[in-house]
Design a protein that fits this description.
By secondary structure, this protein is mainly alpha-helical. Among the domains are: 51 residues, no CATH class; 33 residues, no CATH class. Helices cover 54% and strands 9% of the residues. The protein is built from six helices and two strands, in the order αββααααα. Strands 1-2 form a two-stranded antiparallel sheet. It is elongated. The termini are far apart. The relative contact order is 0.06.
């Protein structure tokens, strides 16, 4: 193939590529937003297949909602909330048990820098409920008794 033929062939392919790309429909990312886990979650996907997008995003949001039902400290019916207010041991799902075990392992490995047991202490100040207050020293002492255990 001569140099001129190669250049001509390249230009033909380039023109064809430009033609095809111009015909492609240009759309922005597909976006879906939901309030979960105490915050706004937005999923953006650059995919022209809306059906595939809907299925994947619905599955992702369903998984996040399932995690929220188990782990949210803001939902009174969640396993974590029930554990936090329990006065005796409770049975929990295998998922919650696994997360609690991982949290305990991380607390140990971090030398207490990560401490999953501070929830009762932190909640005494009422910020999450929108009712901030200064807890009594006796309340703090009682909550501190459970920290690190």
């Amino acid at each position: 193939m001569t140099r001129a033929a190669a250049i001509l062939l390249f230009l033909v392919f380039l023109a064809l590529a430009v033609f095809v790309l111009q015909r492609e429909e240009t759309t922005g990312p597909l976006v879906r937003t939901r309030l979960l886990m105490g915050t706004v979650i937005e999923i953006r996907v650059a995919d022209r297949d809306a059906g595939r997008f809907d299925a994947a995003v619905s599955e992702a949001f369903a998984e996040m909602a399932a995690i929220e039902k188990l782990m949210s400290p803001h939902l009174p019916e969640s396993e974590i909330s029930r554990i936090s207010t329990a006065t005796e041991p409770l049975p929990v799902s295998s998922e919650t048990g696994e997360v609690l075990q991982l949290a305990a392992d991380m607390a140990k490995r971090s030398g207490g820098a990560f401490d999953p047991t501070v929830g009762r202490l932190v909640s005494l100040w009422g910020f999450a409920e929108g009712e901030p207050r200064l807890p009594a020293e006796a309340e703090i002492a009682q909550a501190l008794a459970g920290v690190g255990s």
